[in-house]
Design a protein that fits this description.
The complex is a heterotrimer. Helix content of chain A is about 30%, strand content about 20%. Chain A is of the alpha+beta class. In chain A, helix 10 runs antiparallel to helix 11 (about 285-295) and helix 11 runs antiparallel to helix 12. Chain A has twelve helices and twelve strands. The longest helix of chain B is centred in the C-terminal third of the chain and has 25 residues, at about 555-580. In chain B, about 25% of the residues lie in helices and about 25% in strands. Chain B is an alpha+beta fold. In chain B, helix 17 (about 515-525) runs parallel beside helix 18 (about 555-580) and helix 21 crosses helix 22 (about 780-795). In chain B, the strands form eight sheets. A seven-stranded mixed sheet of chain B has the order 3-7-1-14-11-12-13, with helices on both faces. Chain B starts with a helix and ends with a helix. The model of chain B has no long low-confidence stretch (mean pLDDT about 95). Chain C is built from seven helices and seven strands. In chain C, helix 4 packs across helix 7. Chain C is of the alpha+beta class. Chain C has helices spanning about 25-35, 65-70, 115-125, 125-135, 145-155, 160-170, 180-195; strands spanning about 10, 20, 45-50, 55-60, 90-95, 95-100, 115. The chains are: A alpha+beta, B alpha+beta, C alpha+beta. Chains B and C meet through helix 2 and helix 21 of B and helix 3, helix 4 and helix 5 of C.
């Protein structure tokens, strides 16, 4: 890797102050599995002058059950610890499953929850070394995927203003969406539905100097079950082609609340409100799950090479819903 | 001893069964021994060229092209030269560079060391920078300013054939992008046997189809790399090359000639090659640059490719196939006609219908084979050059068996044969060449059918839905075994002083096939030694030219060389045991067995004994005696040693094995292989789950069964990756590679086969190697990718003749994509 | 080699050039005297415990842990295969976790307790024996990464099922396709450990307790 200056931040304030000092020419690092790949490949138009380590900030690696219900997970908590945590497995199943299916066992020992949530896109044009494709997300003029090979790109259109079709690759993001997470940052609390905001060089609503501190998951209501499924070409290592997380609350046989979130199919995690609403008041059966799957992809507008993702999304919604019944 | 040598010479250019007398196998064929290299490798101590660091070493990196087709018009390296830590830059226009030089390709040909014209994105070109560290070299590359002439390019073979296609290499292929027929002529492009028109007229059923194989590549875990150091007027070279002997020969031709005896080759363990980079024509181009810069800087220079740089190039089966098959109702194939347009083959001599010639009785064949240049990396044998053939044979048989509603295993047996002849002819051939007469294909199929429970599980395509909603598929394919290229080899064995252990000597090159153990097993059995007393060091060049342990020919060539050396050495040992020891001017010591003749003795467990009275015994350690500096008599008298310094015990063996690559050559192969696969296809996602694989290989004779099984399950994993997920993907608009990393290029991992792999061996003794062996290293990884086609078809009832068979294609075939 | 053992090293403050007696003292000095939040730390000096030995090493910020272990410490068992965190060949155990040394900045590993394949082999020659016996390797390049990952699993779970072994090793790529042999080798090793009466596989790992 090219040279840079490195700081071990001792506090959130120090990390922010360091970042501000470098005026956008510094990067935060936590697990590092995303950032270092980008730096090794020199894909960014401007290589960071400084890297600020957040792992040295004390008190951000924890899973805490709250007295008033719910659980709070520190930003630096490793995915493997989340996947193996008994309480998360029991009450926030979708998140445990998502964390347990992210990347490979090694990456899960390194990668943090906040890092997974804030990770950059995997579009292969964006990621080609040496900034070979100076695309929209790097401040360039166009999206190369539209004319090029878009087999893993968005089936629900691009960002409105910029036209980028790179999907959001996180496995935990849809789980946190289904579970209605709230993200506390160094500046504020953001609801998960407002967290993903796509722009040039950004995938979240965070200000450039804002740091995720912890993620709060509200106590699931009675009768609420959640699940996560992932479709990828390989059983390990791979990013999703499509993943899906759902949280369904049943009262008796009736669905009283449903949250359905697909990911890797759109520039941000894709919630299907239509499918959610259509399920209300209905039982959870093969038929209703299939209906939800159909509704979830009703708005799909696939590109030249990715129509298959529509079908997979449909199946994933159905199956994830049904896996809540087992 | 002369008998042994003349017997060895009789077997050269071997076209028949091994005619040596049998030995009792104590070690050969046993599963017991652990790998010779096992502790070394698993403990992390094993050294690879990537790990080499020498005092004062510099690091060399290459400029690579951002364009698929371009020419350097002007290059300014001054900024790079000024970067601290840069120790030398070699430019394409350096007056010290020869116009072209042999760079150790699969086919000897002069190549440009540092091209100024590039033919694929990512090609090393223009400049090589050596610096104190890889990072500095890389930074310096970024400081080179280049003005490019960017040229039009073409990426797909069939596109490149169109008249309006741009020329991919206008300086060399001035006439168009197709080249094998222009360079080699019809003997290599056309296969014509019988009369296909008449053959199709006889057929009850004719099927025609098109299939496609997309580019996939080798992925050697250790990247291409090497180190060059000048030692006075000699050189020392670390090569990651599966053919170090080729590298040595080529290096000797550089710089006006370097004597062979001043070239020291270090070929450490190799993080696998699978052919691949080792066979690219330019594969020693980086080494040449390293040599020049090492000379100029007076320091050792190490070059290493990036992982991405190792992605350019791939297997030789990339392209499109058009096939037509006719058969009678009973499954007898009457004619096959085919046309294939394949991309970038650097070695375009292997016809895609050759398997149908060599292992079927199909009387009428016509095949047209075109190779076409496109602006992607060079395609070379990758695990094996025969992927195009296994692809063709598997699909031809599966398509016609299905069209006739016949069990594919029966169709295979119906058409087994060779060169258009049936098995009666084949059996006569076995007799004529001294082989046992066994029906290899039948034995393989029967064994495999039992293992996969074929008769119970076989069903028509698209008819079996599992309780879990997935579609069940079962498939079979077959081929002959191939020790494809033949070769030649010389190896030696010497008994070490002091303890009488045996060292097998031959140029090192370890690719992981456990050749070391196999040599030791042979030598131990032939010499009558304990296995632990025999050793082969694969990381050493003692000067003996050993055939590479790859291309499946290891045992068929090197096995002979070791075996011959062992036989001669054994004779030497026994003769030494009956001759007076250490005849010097001051007298001699009596023989260990003064009354006996060599024939009266034998060796067992490293002990020489008198056959008729085994209590009369001498260990090999006693026979060879100690290594000491003093003269024989004094040492003996003073120390009471029984053995003075005596005759060195050392013998060589060599072998030349006939090859198959002459287009007219009839080289009948008798051993067969059969593979069975069970899959479940998820009709809603297009996912393919491989739930069981059965590999049955007739290996002739298994010298080292664990190694055979390793090639089977290993090849199966590689094959499943190649068939389902592996594809090198280029941007159609810019010609830039999009997935040159191991995340986006997907080789199979631990969980990507979800079920058992049964690895079964058949031993008919019908191979041309020693003891009747054939090599199987290239077989399984080459056959399994094609087998996924029939397996998926049997599951979903619709053809996806487009490899890799990814979910998008399956869903499309099912009308859901 | 740039590394120096503890005790022989003078700890220089990079800002005022004053010497300190220990690394801890230097850290404290920089924190209190130089308001370190505004300037780089005395980076470059990290202390690792590698296979039980304490090593103080001066590193550059951009060096990965792989570079330090492989190139500086000469522990070449960690192998460079993918260089992007996708293959597991460079795995080491750090503070009880199997991590990818190619995707870890060395400068962030100060104080870490690390075990490489060399350390695993020294601790468990029996595991290496089983790997050799069952041919759980071909070219051998990726093998150390499997061995280290398997050891990390055994530290957490001394009696893993075949499925658990397969899942733990799912992030290690082997191009030769030796996958079926790894669970066999590991299970055989576990079985042997059990019959030998040594059931405290985990406790031998005195370094990796801070999970």
């Amino acid at each position: 890797m090219k040279r840079f200056i490195h700081f071990n931040a001792r506090s959130v304030e120090q990390a922010v102050s360091l970042l501000n000092r470098f005026q956008g020419r510094a990067e935060f690092i936590a697990g590092g599995t995303d950032l270092l790949g980008k730096m090794k490949d020199r894909i960014l138009p401007r290589y960071p002058e400084a890297v600020i380590n957040l792992k040295t900030i004390p008190g951000l690696d924890f899973i805490r059950s709250e007295a008033e219900g719910g659980v709070t997970i520190g930003a630096l908590t490793r995915l493997e610890d989340i996947a193996a945590h008994p309480l998360i497995k029991e009450k926030f199943t979708a998140l445990a499953q998502a964390a347990g299916r992210t990347a490979s066992p090694h990456i899960r020992e390194m990668g943090t929850l906040a890092g997974n949530l804030c990770q950059d896109i995997r579009c292969w044009y964006y990621r080609t070394p040496e900034n070979r494709f100076p695309c929209l997300r790097k401040g360039g003029g166009r999206c190369y995927a539209i004319e090029g090979d878009n087999r893993y790109h968005s089936i629900f259109g691009g960002t409105v203003e910029e036209g980028c079709y790179a999907v959001h690759p996180s496995d935990t993001a849809p789980a946190l969406t289904a579970l209605q997470a709230r993200i506390r940052t160094s500046k504020r609390v953001i609801a998960i539905d407002d967290f993903f905001e796509i722009g040039v060089t950004k995938t979240t609503a965070l200000d450039f100097d804002e740091i995720v501190l912890e993620i709060f998951l509200p106590e699931p209501g009675e009768g609420c079950r959640s699940a996560f499924l992932k479709f990828a070409l390989r059983k390990s290592i791979d990013f999703p082609i499509v993943n899906c997380a759902v949280a369904v609350t049943l009262k008796g046989w009736r669905i009283v609340q449903a949250r359905i979130c697909l990911n890797a199919v759109h520039v941000r995690p894709y919630r299907s409100i239509e499918a959610e609403e259509a399920l209300l008041g209905k039982p959870l059966t093969d038929e209703t799950a299939e209906m939800a799957g159909n509704l979830a992809v009703a708005g799909a507008r696939p590109l030249k090479h990715n129509a298959y993702m529509v079908q997979i999304s449909r199946a994933m919604v159905k199956r994830t819903l049904l896996s809540c019944t087992s | 001893m002369n008998d042994e040598i003349s017997r060895m010479q009789e077997m050269l250019d071997n076209l028949g069964a091994d005619r040596y007398p049998e030995v009792a196998f104590k070690h050969i064929g046993k599963k017991g021994p652990r790998r010779v290299d096992g502790l070394h490798k698993a403990s992390g101590q094993a050294d690879y060229t990537m790990d080499v660091r020498l005092p004062g070493m510099l690091f060399l990196r290459f400029l690579t092209s951002p364009y698929p087709h371009a020419k350097i018009l002007r290059m300014d390296t001054s900024r790079a030269e000024g970067l601290p830590g840069v120790r030398g830059i070699l430019r394409y226009d350096d007056p010290g560079l020869p116009p072209a030089v042999d760079l150790a390709g699969h086919v000897p040909a002069a190549e440009i060391v540092l091209p100024e014209i590039v033919h694929f994105q990512g090609q090393e070109c223009g400049a090589a920078v050596c610096a104190d560290s890889e990072e500095v070299a890389e930074e310096a590359l970024g400081l080179i300013d280049i003005e490019w002439e960017v040229r039009p390019f073409v990426l797909e073979a069939e596109e490149a054939l169109k008249p309006e296609a741009p020329l991919a290499n206008p300086e060399v292929f001035t006439w168009g992008n197709h080249y094998n027929e222009m360079l080699l002529g019809e003997a290599y492009t056309d296969i014509k046997k019988g009369d296909v028109v008449a053959g199709f007229a006889e057929a009850d059923k004719i099927v025609e189809f098109r299939s496609q194989r997309r580019l996939h590549t080798w992925i050697g875990p250790e990247r291409p790399c090497g180190v060059f150091r000048w030692n006075g007027d000699g050189v020392e070279v670390w090569v990651k090359q599966q053919r170090p002997h080729v590298a040595k020969r080529v290096i000797a031709s550089w710089f006006g000639g370097i004597p062979m005896n001043k070239i020291q080759i270090h070929c450490l363990y190799q993080g696998a090659s699978f052919g691949g980079w080792s066979q690219v024509n330019w594969n020693l181009g980086p080494m040449y640059c390293a040599a020049v810069l090492a000379k100029r800087t007076g320091r050792p220079v190490k070059w290493v490719f990036t992982r991405r740089e190792d992605f350019f190039g791939g297997e030789m089966d990339e392209g499109a196939y058009y096939l037509k098959v006719g058969a009678r109702k009973d499954g007898t194939i009457t004619a096959v006609e085919g046309r294939a347009v394949l991309a970038n083959q650097q070695w375009p001599v292997f016809h895609f219908l050759k398997h149908l010639v060599e292992n079927t009785r199909i009387p009428n064949l016509y095949g047209k084979f075109l190779t076409v240049m496109v602006n992607k990396g060079p395609n070379v044998p990758t695990r094996c050059e025969q992927n195009a053939n296994t692809h063709t044979q598997t699909l031809v048989f599966d398509h016609i068996a299905n069209a006739l509603n016949l069990d594919p295993t029966e169709v295979a047996l119906k058409n087994d044969g060779a060169f258009g002849h049936d098995t009666v002819w084949l059996d006569q051939h076995k007799v004529d060449r001294g082989f046992p007469v066994r029906d290899s294909l039948k034995e393989c199929i029967e064994k495999g059918k039992r293992a996969i429970d074929w008769d119970r599980k076989w069903h028509p395509p698209g008819t079996k839905k599992m309780p879990n909603g997935r579609l069940h598929g079962l498939a079979f394919t077959f081929a002959h075994e191939w020790d494809d290229s033949g070769g030649s080899s010389e190896m030696a064995i010497r008994l070490e002083r002091n303890d009488g252990t045996a060292s097998i000597l031959g140029m090192g090159s370890d690719n992981g096939v456990d050749a070391e153990n196999s040599y030791c097993l042979i030598a131990a059995d032939e010499l009558g030694m304990k296995l632990e007393d025999v050793h082969y060091n694969p990381r050493f060049d003692p000067g003996f030219f050993r055939m590479t342990p790859d291309s499946s020919t290891n045992m068929a060539v090197n096995g002979f060389a070791v075996r011959n050396a062992a036989r001669i050495l054994k004779r030497q040992i026994l003769e030494a045991a009956v001759a007076p020891v250490a005849q010097t001017q001051r007298g001699s010591f009596p023989a260990f067995f003064p009354e006996a003749k060599a024939e009266d003795l034998d060796i067992k467990d490293s002990i020489i004994f008198l056959r008729k009275d085994p209590t009369k015994r001498v260990s090999l350690a006693e026979l060879v005696g100690p290594s000491r500096s003093a003269g024989p008599m004094t040492d003996n008298e003073n120390l009471g040693m029984r053995t003075p310094f005596s005759v060195p015990l050392f013998a060589y063996g060599y072998h030349v094995q006939d090859g198959t690559y002459h287009p007219e050559h009839i080289y009948t192969k008798f051993c067969r292989q059969a593979h069975f696969m069970e899959v479940e296809v998820d009709p809603e996602t297009g996912e393919v789950i491989v739930t069981k694989v059965v590999n049955v290989n007739d290996v002739g004779k298994a010298i080292n069964p664990m190694s055979c099984h390793g090639q089977q399950y290993g090849g199966t994993y590689m094959g499943v990756g190649r068939g389902l997920t592996e594809e090198v993907i280029y941007d159609p608009v810019t010609g830039v590679m999009l997935n040159g990393n191991l995340l986006d290029y997907k080789i199979a991992g631990m969980l990507d086969i979800d079920g058992p792999i049964d690895t079964l061996l058949v031993e008919t003794g019908m191979g041309y190697g020693p003891y009747g062996v054939v090599g199987i290293g290239e077989d399984i990884g080459t056959v399994i990718p094609a087998l996924l086609g029939p397996a998926v078809f049997n599951a979903i009832g619709v053809r996806v003749d487009d490899f890799p068979i990814t979910p998008d294609k399956i869903l499309k075939a099912l009308g859901k994509g | 080699m740039p590394e120096r053992s503890e005790g022989t090293e003078r700890f220089h403050c990079p800002y005022c050039q004053k010497h300190q007696e220990s690394f801890e003292a230097l850290k404290n000095h920089v924190l209190t005297e130089h308001r370190m939040e505004t300037v780089p730390e005395p980076e470059g000096l990290i202390r690792l415990t590698v296979n039980g030995e304490v090593r103080s090493i001066r590193v550059e910020a951009e060096w990965t842990l792989y570079q330090v272990i492989h190139d500086r410490l000469g522990l070449t068992g960690a192998k460079m295969f993918c260089d992007r965190g996708a293959c597991g060949s460079c795995t080491v155990i750090m503070n009880g976790r199997a991590v990818l040394s190619c995707m870890t900045l060395a400068i962030e590993c100060d104080g870490a307790i690390i075990k490489t394949v060399e350390g695993v082999a020294a601790e468990h020659p029996g595991l290496i024996e089983k790997y050799a016996e069952h041919h759980a390797m071909q070219c051998g390049y990726c093998t150390p990464g499997f061995v280290v990952t398997a050891k990390a699993l055994l530290d957490k779970n001394e009696n893993p099922s075949e499925r658990e072994i397969r899942e733990a090793l799912a992030g290690n790529l082997c191009r030769c396709g030796t996958y079926p042999q790894h669970p066999i080798a590991v299970l055989d090793f576990v079985r042997q450990q059990k019959t030998a009466g040594s059931t405290d596989l985990g406790s031998e790992n005195q370094e990796g307790k801070n999970r």
